[in-house]
Design goal:
Length: 410
């Protein structure tokens, strides 16, 4: 699939410290240098793209991709597109649109937004609708291993053998499972948390032929089949190096994905599980059900500079809850203007030490709040200092460093 235009990483001269990240399962971990690094990030369901929660998530993994690439690691980055799902079909029906055209239109919008925000494109952006053979093969493997069973004409995965690593009490898990697409109360299931693998066709919805009947896959098996196909190097006791997404995917999606991989391969899914915090608006997490979504494309159409949006999303820690509001937008615009003013000067404060500190901030679990404060400190002092003996011609070095490390192209 055609992705979006590549983004060049300018060379930088600073020494990059080891990268440490906060893993959702085990805490702080070092991402050790290696020749190869495989990263899978859960993509959009293209019925309403791209709100700022999406943007914040993909920006986070863009920073990781940039840092590892600057370390000369060969990053293999895959992202899926869930272009067949209940919310997409519901939206298409409600707006009297063809579901495929709706998905394609929203996917195009998403790509444009990612390009505007200077997100490095993945190596593979994989549609679920183009992956039915992979998914069928994956499910057949589970079936052969005795991990599946039928309820009526639908096929389920038996998760009971993998619940020892459930990240919460069973009752709480069942409640969340019901809220996030699961069907814990369905009669005939062996366990309330068993996820759907293949949904038999109903109500003339879109479907695909398979050995399991005419229908479509369940949510969790899509990502696992794609990740296994595109990223597994078969070199370790885990399939990929990093699984990423928003914190709302920790359970059930990433838990179930890990269980499916374990059942099929007897290996772990990912060495690292990294999750981003939610972005809120008007006091609540952005969500379609609450109607409080702020879209990147709408902000850009209103004349907001994409770099200002990127700066605003970097202004707090990626794993914290962040609130979007006019105050944040206005302050980000003022701060970007300040940096541009400093970079426009022929002579500024030396940049090497600042860039080293900025790199160290990013290496410390992507501390972008500290990184931006360092940029502002350099900018303010570069503008204020009048003594020429303290100034040098290093604005270009600073601009290249900010572009490479943070994707901030001024």
């Amino acid at each position: 699939m055609k992705i979006w235009p590549p983004v060049a990483l300018p060379p930088i001269s600073v020494q990059l410290p080891p990268l440490f990240l906060q893993d959702s399962n085990v805490g702080k971990v070092e991402v050790k240098k290696s020749r190869f690094f495989s990263m899978y990030v859960c993509g959009i369901t293209p019925y309403d793209a791209t709100h700022l929660g999406h943007a914040a998530t993909y920006l986070t993994f863009d920073l990781i991709n940039r840092y590892l690439s600057l370390e000369h690691t060969n990053v293999n980055f895959v992202e899926n597109v869930t272009d067949i799902d209940d919310p997409l079909l519901e939206r298409a029906s409600k707006t009297n649109q063809d579901w495929q055209q709706l998905a394609e239109d929203q996917l195009t919008l998403f790509k444009n937004d990612m390009s505007a925000l200077r997100i490095l494109p993945p190596d593979h952006l994989v549609k679920v609708t183009n992956s039915m053979d992979l998914i069928e093969k994956f499910i057949k493997g589970l079936e052969k291993g005795g991990h599946t069973y039928k309820v009526d004409n639908d096929l389920y995965f038996s998760v009971s053998d993998f619940l020892s690593e459930l990240p919460m009490a069973t009752d709480e898990a069942i409640s969340i499972f019901a809220e996030r697409g699961g069907d814990p109360t369905r009669a005939g299931k062996k366990h309330p948390l068993d996820p759907l693998l293949w949904l038999a066709n109903k109500n003339n919805e879109p479907g695909w032929d398979s050995v399991f009947g005419y229908g479509r896959p369940g949510w969790h098996v899509e990502c696992t089949a794609i990740a296994l196909e595109y990223l597994d190097r078969e070199e370790a006791d885990f399939v990929i190096d990093m699984q990423g997404g928003g914190s709302d995917l920790i359970f059930p999606h990433h838990f179930m994905s890990a269980a499916l991989i374990n059942a099929l391969t007897n290996r772990k899914f990912a060495k690292l599980f990294i999750h981003t915090g939610m972005v809120g608006f008007q006091g609540e997490k952005m969500s379609k059900s609450k109607g409080n979504l702020v879209f990147v494309s709408k902000l850009i159409s209103q004349g907001v500079d994409p770099i200002v949006i990127r700066w605003a999303l970097l202004s707090d820690h990626y794993q914290s809850y962040r609130e979007w509001n006019e105050e944040l937008l206005n302050s980000s615009q003022s701060e970007v203007n300040l940096v541009r003013e400093a970079l426009s000067k022929s002579e500024v404060l030396p940049s090497t030490q600042y860039l080293q500190q900025i790199a160290s901030a990013i290496a410390s679990n992507l501390d972008t709040k500290l990184a931006l404060n360092l940029i502002l400190d350099w900018s303010q002092k570069s503008i204020a200092v009048q003594e020429s003996s303290n100034l040098v011609n290093s604005a270009g070095e600073m601009a290249r460093g900010l572009d490479a490390l943070l994707g901030l192209s001024f």
